Amino acid sequence: MMSEGERMEKQDSLQPIVLERQKFDLDDIREMHTLYIENYPIIYILHQDKETKSRPKAYIGQTVHVHNRMRDHLKNQARKDLTDALFIGHQTFNQSATFNIETNLINYFIADNQFSLQNVSQTANLSMHNYYQKSLYDDDLFEDIWESLRREGLAKETTDNLKNRDIYKLSPFKTLSEPQRALKENILDYCKRVMQDIHQEKAVKKKVYVIHGEAGTGKSVILSSLFNTLQEEARQSHSVLAGTKNFLLVNHSEMLKTYQQISESLPYLKKKDFAKPTPFINNQKIEQADIVLIDEGHLLLSQADPYNNFNGENQLDAIMDKAKVAVLIFDEKQYLKVKSKWQSDDLKAILKKYDADEFHLTDQFRMNASPVVMNWVNDFVGQKVTPLPPSDDHFEFKIFDDPIAFKDYIYQKNADKGLSRIVSTFDFAHKKNGDVYLVDEAGINLPWNTTDSKVTWSERPETINEVGSIYTVQGFDLNYVGIVLGPSIDYDFKTERLTIDPSKYQDTGGYSGANRFASHKEAMAAKEQIILNSINVLMKRGIYGLAIYAVNDNLKRKLQKMKVEAMQDDI
C-alpha cells in the first residue's frame, strides 16, 4: 500500500510538463524566464523547420544551466543551420531523470525517422542504472512528453509503434548494462591501442576480438553502439582513431536494411559503412580497412562457395587480408549451413594466425523467460523433451495441437501487443521464382515470407499472414513467436528423444559442402545440428511468449501429453 508521502510524490510527478518554444538565437534565449525551465534541469530540442526541409536536422540535449548551454550551442558551427528551440521542463526533474529522458528521446527520434540527428555517442556511454521513481519517469512522464512532441509536430508515431521497430532496438544510443558497457569500452580501448602502435610504426600483428554469446545476449546492441563511437572518433582530428576506415558486416539482408535505416538519422554513419561479407571481400575499391566489426560471425563461410562468388579458403581470413582489427560475434549454436560450420579446432587454428582475445556474454536480454523456460528450450534443442515449464506473469509458454487455435493465438497477440509472428523450420519447399509456396498446407496453410521491401519483414503489417523463415528473423526480436516444427522433427517414444530426419529438411542449400566430412556419419551429424540450431534460433525470438505447433503426430502427441500433465499438476 502506498504511503501518503509516496502518493504526494507520484501526484507531483504527474503534474503537466512545461513547454517553451523560442527561436534559436541569443535574443530569444535571453527572454526565457519560465519556472522549471530557468531554474531546473531541463530537456531541449534544437531543430530546423520541418515545413521547409525534407530531411530537417535536430539536436537533443539536457542541461542544468540553460543559458550557458545555449550560448555554447550558438557558437558551435554544427548548430548554425538549426533555427528553432523547444525547452521541456517539469517540477520534479533531476539530472538522473533528464539524462535518461534525453537518451530515450534520441532512441525514439531515430526510430521515428523524421529528423537527421546531430547527436553523437557520448550519451550511449552511460550504463543502465536506477534512480528514485525511475519507472514513473520512464512510463508516465515520458509518454506525456512524447505526446506533446507529436502535438508540436516534432514526432509522428506513438511510442507503442516505435518500440516494435528494429531500428529502435538496435539504436546505438540504447542504454547498455554495466557488463555491456564495460565490454564496449574494453574493445574501444583495444582498437585504440592497436592504432596507436601502428601510428608509432611498431610491428603489429593483426588482431581478432571474438565475442561469444548465445541468442538474446545483447551482442548486436554492443556492436551498434561500438560502431557509432568508432565512426565518431574516426572524424575527430584529436582522436587516435582519426581517419580510420571502418566497416560493420552483417550476413542477412533484413539486418542490413535495419543498419542502413539507422544511418539515415545519425551524422557519423553512412550506408556505405555497412555491407555483407562477400561483397566486402570482393569489392576491389576496398583494398584496406582498419577496424571491421562482424555481426553473426558464425555465418561466415568456412570454405569456398563459388556459387555465392566466394573462392577463398574461409571468409574470416579473407576479411583479415584487408583489416587490421576484426571484432567478431560468434555463437556456435547459430550456424545454419554446412559451409558455415566452424569446427572448434578450425577456428582455433585460424585465430592462432592473429593476436586473438575472447569474451563470453551470458546475460539474457531478449526473453523475459524464467530460467526454467530457458532450460526447457535448451534441453529441447539438445533433443531432450522434459516436462513443460509453467507460464508466468512475464512470459507465456503455450503448446497447440490445433493449427487454427495456434494461428488465432498469434493473431490475437499481434492485435494486442504488435510484432507477433509465425515462423517455421525450413521443412517446406520454397524457391525464389516468384511463386507462392505454402507452409504445412494441410494445417497452417500460410505462405512463406516475402522480402521484397525496404522495411524488415516483421514490421510490415501484412506479414502477419505469412510464415517467417530462419533467414528472415535471425538476429531480430518478436514480442510473441509461434514456431511450426516441421516434418524433419519428431519424437521417438522408445528412446524418449527428439529425432531429426535431415532428408525431410527443405533447405537443401544448407547441406552444400557436406562432402568435406571424412565420413557419412559426420556429414549426417552436421546436417542434424543445422536443424537443431534453427530450432534454437527460432524459439529464442520472443520477448514475452513462445507458442509451439508440431506437424508430426508423435511429437504432437508427446507435447499434448505433457501439456495435460502440466495442467493436472496445477490443479
From TrEMBL:
<feature type="domain" description="Schlafen group 3-like DNA/RNA helicase">
    <location>
        <begin position="206"/>
        <end position="551"/>
    </location>
</feature>
<protein>
    <submittedName>
        <fullName>DUF2075 domain-containing protein</fullName>
    </submittedName>
</protein>
<dbReference type="InterPro" id="IPR027417">
    <property type="entry name" value="P-loop_NTPase"/>
</dbReference>
<dbReference type="Pfam" id="PF09848">
    <property type="entry name" value="SLFN-g3_helicase"/>
</dbReference>
<dbReference type="InterPro" id="IPR018647">
    <property type="entry name" value="SLFN_3-like_DNA/RNA_helicase"/>
</dbReference>
